[in-house]
Write a structure and sequence with these properties.
The protein is α/β, with parallel strands linked by helices and 302 residues long. It has helices at 12-23, 55-68, 130-133, 150-160, 178-186, 233-237, 274-301; strands at residues 2-8, 28-32, 72-75, 78-84, 87-92, 96-104, 108-111, 126-127, 142-145, 167-170, 190-191, 196-202, 205-211, 216-218, 221-224, 227-230, 261-263. The strands form four sheets. Strands 1, 2, 3, 4, 5, 6 and 17 form a seven-stranded mixed β-sheet that branches. Strands 8-15-9-10-11 form a five-stranded parallel β-sheet, covered by helices on one side. A three-stranded antiparallel β-sheet has the order 12-13-14, with no helix packed on it. The chain is elongated.
Length: 302
């Protein structure tokens, strides 16, 4: 099967791109492994006109729109991409496609510190993005938990104070400088340096943070700074350039260093929220269509 474009990943970036391409009357198939990053989240916020919708509903509507314009969708996992004379061959577990261009929109995974209770409550009462969920937990007792992502966590601790006057920061192994302490204290944030042993959960919700000295600090919401790990194996296999921060680099349209290969969303942009990922997918789709147009013109002249 040959397509103009194969899109890998049916999240906001991938579906947005596929819809734009299908509307441009390009043959496009989206291949998706069924592992959305926000699967555990209860609602979507910050997405104009879709505030409060369940993530699964948003993606289902996006799939329906894309299919309605003639795009195709395959539930499968892409295992490799190889370059060929006329583009690429995309290999999935149960199928293979030839294509003129590829868009990788496989997202990232969030690695949390190994504290019992965190992963179980991820997306419920354990959160990382205050712009996505801060308003919903406003004025509740909030804990910010330190982890491997030091810069993100310290920024997060100072930021969370905008949503609640009751914020406690547990460095949990992060060494604080005097400037760090002054910043957090000036923001009205209490610092508790006792190591965290586990998160106390009751009736499906966080009730507090248990510390090594035996204390239980009552909290209703916990913010953490995950380590963001891009699902960029396919891009690296193709030899796409990786930058100093160890992320695949792209131009403003999402074009990688490999001609004909684009990437959009969290796979190359960890801060991207859903609305930003969707916008990146749309921008990449337009660039891909222009790339294909140039090929069409050359072929027609020849």
């Amino acid at each position: 099967m040959r397509y103009d474009v194969v899109v890998i990943g049916a999240g906001a970036a991938g579906l947005s791109a596929a819809t734009v391409l299908a509307r441009a009357r390009r043959s496009v198939v989206v291949v998706d492994a069924g592992e959305p990053r926000n699967a555990s989240a209860q609602h979507v916020h910050g997405f104009l006109s879709r505030d409060g919708v369940e993530p699964a509903r948003l993606l289902a509507d996006g799939r329906s729109e894309m299919l309605g314009y003639g795009g195709q969708l395959l539930d499968d996992r892409v295992t490799s991409i190889e370059r060929c004379e006329n583009g690429f061959v995309v290999h999935a577990r149960n199928s293979a496609f030839s294509t003129r261009a590829v868009l990788v929109a496989t997202g990232l995974r969030d690695e949390l510190v190994p504290i019992p209770g965190l992963r179980e409550q991820w997306g419920i009462d354990v959160l990382h993005c205050p712009y996505c969920h801060g308003y919903e937990v406003r004025d509740t007792p909030i804990a910010v938990l330190g982890g491997d992502n030091r810069p993100f966590t310290l920024h997060q601790a100072a930021l969370i104070r905008q949503w609640s006057p009751d914020v406690i920061f547990f460095p949990n192994g992060i060494e604080l400088s005097e400037q760090d302490r002054r910043t957090l204290t000036a923001r009205g944030i209490h610092i508790d340096e006792e190591p965290v042993t586990h998160i106390v959960v009751d009736a499906g919700h966080v009730r507090g943070v248990a510390l090594r000295d035996g204390r239980l600090v009552p909290r209703q919401t916990i913010f953490v700074g995950p380590t963001f790990v891009p699902r960029d194996e396919l891009l690296r296999q193709l030899g796409c350039t990786v930058g100093d921060a160890d992320w695949v680099t792209v131009d403003p349209t999402g074009l990688t260093s490999v001609t004909g290969v684009w990437a959009a969303g969290n796979v190359v942009d960890s801060p991207a929220q859903l609305i930003g990922a969707a916008a990146a997918g749309s921008k990449a789709a337009i660039a891909i269509n222009h790339y294909l147009l140039a090929q069409d013109i050359d072929h027609a002249i020849a």
